[in-house]
Amino acid sequence: MTPKRRRIDWDQLRTRLAAAREAAADHVLSPERVEAIYRERAEALARPRTEADRASGFRVLEVEVGGERFGVDLRDVAEVLPFDGGTPVPGGPSELVGVVNVRGDLRSVTDLGRLLGVTGSNILGFVVLIRGAEAALRVDRAEAVRTIELAADARPDSPFVRGVTADRLRVLDTAALLAHPVFRGPSGKE
Amino acid sequence: MGTKWTVGRKLAAGFAVALTALLVVGAVSYRSMSQLIENAAWVAHTHEVLQELESLLSLLKDAETGQRGYLISRQKSFLEPYTVALTRYPDRFREIRKLTSDNPNQQRRLDTLEPLLVARVDVLRANIEKQDKDEKVTIDLSRGKQLMDDIRRVVQDMEAEERDLLDRRVADEAESVRIAKLVIVLGSLVAVVLVAVIGVVITRGITGPLRTVTDLSRRVAEGDLRDETLTITSSDEIAQLAGTADRMLKSLRDLTGRISSVTATLGGAAAEILASVQQQAAGTKEQAATVQEITTTMEEISQSGAQISGKAKQVAAAAEAASAASASGSRAVQEMSRGMAAIREQVEEVAENIVGVSEKTQAVGEIIATVNDIAERSNLLALNAAIEAAGAGDHGSRFSVVADEMKNLADQAKDSTVQVRTILGEIQKGINTSVMLTEEAVKRVEAGKQQADVTEQTIRQLAETTVESVRAFEQIVGAGGQQQIGFEQVAQGMRDIRQAASQTAASTTQLEAAAANLTALGRALNEAVGRYKL
């Protein structure tokens, strides 16, 4: 709805249409764009590993649940899978959202948000399988793998949090988490 | 004489009495006169009988004389008296018998006389026959004398009888005359007395009441109408006259009373008429002024009408021009309507093309979903690769770099799909907008077409209205002319009214004088009626 009457320049319009058509027909990125991508990738690869990475830095899987970001030590993570909802377990604890089949192994899926007292979202999200345990944590999102360094002065606000980074990423204490009663219940196979 | 009798009856009764007296006297006189005349006739009759008897005897004597002469002289010439007597005596005898037919005594005597006469004549005839035969005539004188004496005796008896009758009739006559005289004198006297008495009585019966009525009439003539019932007991014409006069008096009194009241009413009415006439005079003056105003106004209206007529002609010309303009306008709008229809068709084609494009963007969206899915999987794959690399410790450090790179590519792919999806969303939004705009355009074109149709209809109506207006203005112009004529007529009418009003004013003046006269007349009438004492 444009009440302002604008005279249309049909010649210019036709030129623009032709240009668009040509661009769509090529199906290729512009050489400059391709060059830029290549350079960016090369720069990333050529970046040397820092000293911090080696000393106190460690890699974590950054997950998100209920709008809050948490870090899980990458060494504790076995696999990340898309969550298909699983099979509900009647009579189970409220944190237990269901059981999934991972290549023949049944895993009980526990909602990380409910464990941490964070209100979860409605999306199915992902399942993070913990290495060396049968535990499986449901998260809203499994974003990326990062190399982080814990801030020294930050006090963890939860018994399940090991430390906090400078950008307020809370790194979970996997061992404390696995000590939760839900993993040692009747269904637990410790 | 009864008091219930009418005057006519009284007069008739009086005249009847007088006439009766006259009739009685006349009848008696007539009877006496008749008797006298009859007696005279009878005397004459007796004399005639006597004469006839004498004549019969004389004829017998003539016959005897003739016979005697013939016998003596033997000459036939002496026989003449004899033959004459013989031929005549039967007539005489029959005459006598006829005359005395009313008297049986005389008839009886005639019966005895007749054979005697025949015998005597036979004797005479026998003597003459003997003489004719020259025989010796022995005259039987004794027989002849005997017969003759008998005859004479009979005749004398008859004569005596007649004379005796004559004497008696004379005596009767004298008696009759005496009675007649007496009756006439006495009857006349009685009649005179009766008529005098009746006259006095009738006169007295008529004049008394008449005088009473006359007195009443005199009082009425003098204007005295006071109630005074007349005391007349009889029921004759005078009494009726008195009753009538009495009623006349009452009617007159009533009439006078009514005249008096009517006169009062008349006086009031005359005053009212006078007042009305004065009001009418004032009204007539106002009417004249109003007529003057109306005339002025009519002239002004007439001028306005002429102006209106001129304006109407101008408007009619303008309406003609408007009619032509609206015809060309109607054609233009029709063409515009057709153009609108064509635009609509094209716009609809555009809308269909856009819908086709929109359907193609749906396919693009599906492709983007597929690409996005691949990117998600690649991301997850890179993540797991990184996890595996971490699990491998330092040996996996180089793989970890590759995993990171894969992760970057997956993220870029995801970002690109997000961008493409955003662009596609914008394209779809633009398509939606275009469709809506196109729909709006179609609607506008439709509305424009309807508007054009309405405009065309309006222009047609306008043209029709204009034509009607032209006709109406022509009628107005015509009506204006008629109106001018009508105004002329009205002006003429106003002049007539003004003239009539001036005539009315003159009439009103006359009417005023007449009303004044009427008032005076009422006053005079009142005085005239006031003379009567009620």
From TrEMBL, chain A:
Organism of origin: Limnoglobus roseus
Boundaries of every CheW-like domain copy: 57-190
Superkingdom per UniProt: Bacteria
GO BP of this protein: chemotaxis; signal transduction
This protein's name: Chemotaxis protein CheW
Record PANTHER family: CHEMOTAXIS SENSOR HISTIDINE KINASE-RELATED, PROTEIN PILI
Gene Ontology CC, one term: cytosol
Any Pfam family: CheW
UniProtKB/TrEMBL annotation, chain B:
Transmembrane segments: 182-202
HAMP domain location: 204-257
Domain Methyl-accepting transducer residue range list: 262-498
Keywords: Membrane, Transducer, Transmembrane, Transmembrane helix
InterPro entries in UniProt: CHASE3, HAMP_dom, MCPsignal_dom
Gene3D superfamilies hit by this protein: Methyl-accepting chemotaxis protein (1.10.287.950)
Any GO CC annotation of this UniProt entry: membrane
Domain of life: Bacteria
Gene Ontology biological process: signal transduction
Family: Belongs to the methyl-accepting chemotaxis (MCP) protein family.
Protein name: Methyl-accepting chemotaxis protein
Protein source organism: Limnoglobus roseus
